[in-house]
């Protein structure tokens, strides 16, 4: 277990480094200064979203779409919903979604997107700092897509609490970076990322209450900021609550 903890701690730095890099490259903006541990999460993300009217593509994350397409629609919790790409897609596919983020700006954009696409009545938007709170209730699907941040946070603790929000028979779906993009700068690519097994191990879930539906990696084609073509590696973890 100490080896797992060390790997996950190192992986948190790796994930943060990738996020720090991607936050700059995806929108062609200067990367904000690396925040200290005392930085206020809300202020950081408000500043980030305030740089541009649109930060993300608005498309659903590919791994979530692959997993959720064949699931019966139910209730879903979208952790760190950002501008709502995943939440709106889930709502369009019949889910009743609770979408949460720490940024009021992101939530307002997500709500506007939901309104424009005709699914506002299927999504409840709530502001939460994941280190402090989660919505009440249990959900058939709890989704954590690339929940990695330049802000210091207890990611394993957040995901462990998120697991507590999964209803009996429901799924916890975690997707994160398994490696840096091939076009990332050397200081990002040097980090060693935790494996999917490491991430699941860090949650310390009761094996008698959870089934590992899928714990591994997946590859997808992507295009870099300067037109580079490459393969991205994602850790994909799908856990079902059985107890």
TrEMBL record:
Biological processes annotated in GO: methylation
Keyword list, A-Z: Methyltransferase, S-adenosyl-L-methionine, Transferase
Family matches, as InterPro entries: Methyltransf_25, SAM-dependent_MTases_sf
Gene Ontology MF annotations: methyltransferase activity
Gene3D superfamilies, per database record: Vaccinia Virus protein VP39 (3.40.50.150)
Pfam families: Methyltransf_25
Methyltransferase domain span: 77-170
Top-level taxon in the UniProt lineage: Bacteria
PANTHER family, sorted: METHYLTRANSFERASE, UBIQUINONE BIOSYNTHESIS O-METHYLTRANSFERASE, MITOCHONDRIAL
Protein name: Methyltransferase
Source organism (scientific name): Mycolicibacterium neworleansense
């Amino acid at each position: 277990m100490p080896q797992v903890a060390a790997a996950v701690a190192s992986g948190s730095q790796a994930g943060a480094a990738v996020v720090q890099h991607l936050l700059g490259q995806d929108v062609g903006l200067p990367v904000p200064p690396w925040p200290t541990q005392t930085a206020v999460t809300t202020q950081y993300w408000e500043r980030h979203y305030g740089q541009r009217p649109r930060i993300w593509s608005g498309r659903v994350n590919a791994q979530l779409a692959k997993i959720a397409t064949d699931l019966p629609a139910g209730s879903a919790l979208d952790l760190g919903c950002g501008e709502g790409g995943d939440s709106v897609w889930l709502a369009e596919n019949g889910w009743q979604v609770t979408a949460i983020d720490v940024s009021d700006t992101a939530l307002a954009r997500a709500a506007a997107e939901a309104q424009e696409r005709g699914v506002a009545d299927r999504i409840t938007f709530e502001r939460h700092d994941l280190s402090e709170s989660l919505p009440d209730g249990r959900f058939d699907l709890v989704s954590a897509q690339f929940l990695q941040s330049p802000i210091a946070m207890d990611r394993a603790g957040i995901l462990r609490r998120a697991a507590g929000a999964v209803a009996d028979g429901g799924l916890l779906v975690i997707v994160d970076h398994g490696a840096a993009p091939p076009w990332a700068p050397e200081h990002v690519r040097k980090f060693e990322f935790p494996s999917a097994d490491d991430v699941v191990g860090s949650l310390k879930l009761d094996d008698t209450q959870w089934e590992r539906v899928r714990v591994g990696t997946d590859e997808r084609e992507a295009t870099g900021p300067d037109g580079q073509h490459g393969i991205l590696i994602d850790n994909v973890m799908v856990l079902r609550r059985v107890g």
